Amino acid sequence: MVLAGGIGGARFLRGLKEAAPDAEITVVGNTGDDIHLFGLKVCPDLDTVMYTLGGGIHEEQGWGRAGETFAVKEELAAYGVGPEWFGLGDRDFATHIVRTQMMGAGYPLSAVTEALCARWQPGVRLLPMTDDRVETHVLIDTADLADGPQNDGGESRKAVHFQEYWVRLRASVAAHAVVPVGAESAKPAPGVLDAIAEADVILFPPSNPVVSVGTILAVPGIREGIAEAGVPVVGLSPIVGDAPVHGMADKVLAAVGVESTAAAVAQHYGSGLLDGWLVDTVDAGSVQSVEDAGIRCRAVPLMMTGTEATAAMAREALTLAEEVNA
Ligand code: GDP
Ligand code: CA
Question: From CA 192, how far away is CA 2, in angstroms rounded?
């Protein structure tokens, strides 16, 4: 069983499938990044996993469809209808139309995801973390916004949708808090708690520890289920050499008071949750401090440069899982 965000989770899963071709893999996907745009329900992380494993992903970009065109977006812009900062292509639009139509007909997101996967055949069972609406919001200073209200010297903060923070603002301003709005009253989607209870091993891929894995763990029952599952829980660090490999995870780690180091992320998850943790070879110096925190740790190459390198990472994670089980 794997908890996954978008790009980091999806790419790792591709390696895991290669490393364990006969394994039944259940993926619990983050839905805190979901957003309603143009009346459509968009689930970026679920779609990234689905497209990546189903062969439809834009490889270099890591999200969105290969061979994409943007006629609909251009036509919307001609009507002055935005947001212009979120890149929805024509092919991708079809996914969101189907999803929104099914949800309008009363199907829960989990059923819709299964229906979408019937086309993509990702080779894993993909479950949203919840069927309930959860939306990650980020608290920022309005004074940091160029087009925000004039700062009169008083402190003024506002919560923006995660996508506005991440995509429109490129995480360029400080995040003071990250709040998965709705998580506290959300229920795990059907199948999630069973998958946790029946898993032989639980993996945290190198996904964002705050807004991907952290959001999934914020759904009541999921963290507790994992901690009590009695099976090895092994994570791979998304932080290599004291910085995120891609993206801006350091900004949201700072918001929860966690340093951007492989060891700090392990301690943030904690030994109550994690049994094993992989850091990159450049962070070999932090292995001891992770072990001192009660988490078995190894330093191995953690750069997902291709499927073979990623499969090797997955094998290391499974080996560490066997080790902590012994
Ligand atoms: P998102 O939802 O698209 O942001 O994707 P995830 O949450 O699944 O993963 C994002 C994280 O993946 C980032 O914090 C990156 O640091 C991490 N990441 C991306 N590529 C690599 C890689 O090759 N190796 C490692 N160790 N981490 C990576
Ligand atoms: Ca995401």
Answer: 11
Side-by-side strand order, sheet with 135-141: 157-161, 135-141, 177-181
Q: What is the rounded CA–CA span in Å between residue 261 and residue 209?
A: 12
Residues 6+ apart with CB under 8 A from 298: 276, 278, 279, 287, 316, 320
| Identity of residue 34 | D
Find the 299 Cα to ligand 1 centroid distance in Å: 17
CA distance 291 to 184: 32
- Dihedral, 297, 298, 304, 309 alpha carbons, nearest 10: -140
> Which domains does the chain carry?
34-124 (1.10.8.240), 135-178 (no CATH), 185-325 (3.40.50.10680)
Strand pairing partners for 137? 161, 179
Tell me the CA distances in angstroms from 31 to 47, 157, 162, 214, one per residue in order: 10, 25, 11, 11
State residue 143's pLDDT score. 85
Alpha-carbon distance of 252 to 213, in angstroms, equals: 12
Is 304 near ligand 1, meaning CB less than 6 Å away? yes
| C-beta separation of 276 from 235 below 8 A | yes
pLDDT at 326: 83
246 close to ligand 1 (CB < 6 Angstrom):
yes
Return the amino acid letter for 247. Answer: G
Give yes or no for residue 8 CB within 6 A of ligand 1: yes
The contacts of residue 81 (CB under 8 Å, 6+ apart) are: 38
Tens-digit pLDDT profile for residues 112-166: 999 999 999 999 999 999 999 999 999 999 888 766 555 555 679 999 999 999 9
What CA–CA distance (Å, rounded) separates 198 from 192? 10
